[in-house]
């Protein structure tokens, strides 16, 4: 079978930790590190049924089936990445796509399974090449410097266009002003009529096709360039289904963005999920049902008639509160001291990129002036690697732009900017590039925000959302204006709810939660209501990521 070909040596995986422990006669729980969970058996079986049909056809049915079931997945299929967990989720996603959109019509033409094997080989070659290129991308600079900079510029352009429509250009639409500020060929012409919409969709489709073809020309093996059928099939799947219809289509809808923000907040804070309608009954009515509410609206619970605390009890409560606060401050300071001591032994940020270069192709990261600095004063802060300090990255400017901190609290913005300047260029340069604090922040970001362990659960969640039970979910009709407004309102309430009460009271300068929600809802409508405007941010992000992965196309 084509999938069973011997994989290249540089992609060979190490033996699993559990197998190593068993060979030594040790138990997993005797080790300090965590034990990885076995992949979902149902998912693995589904992958084998989809991609290993040719093995069953080469021998007797019973023997071949037993042989396929007994072998692990990594011995039957070529590796997609260097992680078995990610491979399982990627193969499951590819299996669903091939079953629903390719084999449904291909099996009606011929029962030959070599076609699927060749497609898998092409995808495996592309994913391995993509992973190798990802190792040479400065993800820290991309995620916390370049992409937040794009988001901040996009938000500024949307707000400027909105103010221009309201004040000086009543005859021009928000789209025209935004396009003048941030033009892009894929968004031209501005779709204000059906004819312009058709032309814009054609330009967008051509742009998606161009991006995919340039990527495939660098990822596909040389022999596959002579196979136009497979190349066209893979490029059509990627350009039309994923980029044009998915990334530049449904993913840009405002209601989907609001819904995604709400789900992320509910995942982080499950206590903010609204209660069922039966549980929303006022507390007074629930007390009245059990006869615990008097005529004046006061409860007859005996516990409410407790006498006031004596002075000694109040002093005791105050004392223990102060002790708890002092203990908390001590724990925080101790954690910081220990972290700083360990940060001195952490590798330099420039060393991480050198280690990545030793593992594969030379790095093509564009840094310095070509990547864009958050401030001209930061040029001399970097070492020869031209890395931006963590505290000087655009992610902080992006957060200030999203929250309108400069408009709402200029005093706070000025204070934070002064503190940033003192930490970066002040006495001691405590947070300059590769300083102890800078290494600590970088190590923390790599351990939590940029950890590859988050990719497999994210792929599993995406597959479960797009293809529940490994099948195409019921088509969801786009919500009407009333339903979209309800989704936007729920998103605003989730955002307000996740902010601590003391902070939101100072930020909004009011105690009225409904007024806070109305203000956040208006901001959400301004920024994300127009899918065409959202598409401007998406195409910019795709081009930046594409340029970092395939720097040959920038030359």
TrEMBL record:
Domain spans labelled PXA: 83-269
Keywords for this protein: Cytoplasm
GO biological process, one term: early endosome to late endosome transport
Region annotation Disordered: where it falls in the sequence: 1-41
PROSITE patterns listed in its UniProt record: PXA (PS51207)
InterPro entries for the chain: Phox_assoc, SortingNexin/PXDomain-PKLike
GO molecular function, one term: phosphatidylinositol binding
CC terms in the record's Gene Ontology section: early endosome; late endosome
Protein name stated in the entry: PXA domain-containing protein
Lineage per the UniProt record: Eukaryota, Fungi, Dikarya, Ascomycota, Pezizomycotina
């Amino acid at each position: 079978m084509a999938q069973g070909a011997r994989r290249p040596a540089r992609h060979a995986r190490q033996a699993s930790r559990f197998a190593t422990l068993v060979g030594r006669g040790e138990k997993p729980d005797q080790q300090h590190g965590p034990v990885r969970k076995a992949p979902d058996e149902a998912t693995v079986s589904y992958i084998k049924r989809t991609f290993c049909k040719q093995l069953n056809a080469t021998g007797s049915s019973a023997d071949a089936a037993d042989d396929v079931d007994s072998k692990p997945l990594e011995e039957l299929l070529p590796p997609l990445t260097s992680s078995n967990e990610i491979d399982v989720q990627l193969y499951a996603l590819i299996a669903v796509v091939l079953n629903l959109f390719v084999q449904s019509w291909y099996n009606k033409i011929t029962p030959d399974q070599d076609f699927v094997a060749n497609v898998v080989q092409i995808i495996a070659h592309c994913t391995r090449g993509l992973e190798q290129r990802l190792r040479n991308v400065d993800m820290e600079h991309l995620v916390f410097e370049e992409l937040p900079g794009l988001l901040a510029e996009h938000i500024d352009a949307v707000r400027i266009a909105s103010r221009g429509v309201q004040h000086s250009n009543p005859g021009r639409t928000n789209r025209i002003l935004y396009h003048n500020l941030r033009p892009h060929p894929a968004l031209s012409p501005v779709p204000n009529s059906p004819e312009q919409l058709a032309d814009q969709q054609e330009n967008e489709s051509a742009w998606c096709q161009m991006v995919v073809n340039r990527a495939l020309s660098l990822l596909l093996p040389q022999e596959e360039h002579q196979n136009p059928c497979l190349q066209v099939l893979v490029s059509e799947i990627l350009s039309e289904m994923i980029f044009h219809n998915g990334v530049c289509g449904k993913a840009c809808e405002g209601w989907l963005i609001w819904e995604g923000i709400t789900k992320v907040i509910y995942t982080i804070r499950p206590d903010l999920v609204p209660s069922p309608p039966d549980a929303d009954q006022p507390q007074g009515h629930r007390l009245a049902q059990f006869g615990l509410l008097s005529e004046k609206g006061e409860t007859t619970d005996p516990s409410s008639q407790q006498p006031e605390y004596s002075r000694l009890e109040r002093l005791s409560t105050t004392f223990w509160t102060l002790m708890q606060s002092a203990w908390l401050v001590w724990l925080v300071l101790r954690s910081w001291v220990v972290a700083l001591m360990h940060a001195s032994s952490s590798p330099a940020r420039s060393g991480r990129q050198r280690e990545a270069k030793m593992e594969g192709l030379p790095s093509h990261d564009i840094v310095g002036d070509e990547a864009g600095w958050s401030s001209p004063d930061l040029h001399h802060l970097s070492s020869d690697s031209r890395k931006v300090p963590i505290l000087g990255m655009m992610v902080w400017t992006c957060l200030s732009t999203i929250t309108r901190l400069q408009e709402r609290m200029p005093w706070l913005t000025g204070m934070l900017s002064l503190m940033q300047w003192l930490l970066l260029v002040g006495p001691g340069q405590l947070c300059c590039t590769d300083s102890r604090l800078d290494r600590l922040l970088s190590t923390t970001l790599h351990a939590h925000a940029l950890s590859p362990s988050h990719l497999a659960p994210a792929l599993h969640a995406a597959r479960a959302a797009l293809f529940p039970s490994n099948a195409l979910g019921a088509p969801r009709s786009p919500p009407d204006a009333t339903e979209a407004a309800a989704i936007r309102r729920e998103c605003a309430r989730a955002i307000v709810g996740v902010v601590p009460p003391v902070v939101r009271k100072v930020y909004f300068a009011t105690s009225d939660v409904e007024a806070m929600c109305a203000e956040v809802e208006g901001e959400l409508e301004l920024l994300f209501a127009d899918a065409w405007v959202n598409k401007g941010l998406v195409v910019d992000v795709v081009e930046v990521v594409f340029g970092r992965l395939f720097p040959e196309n920038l030359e």
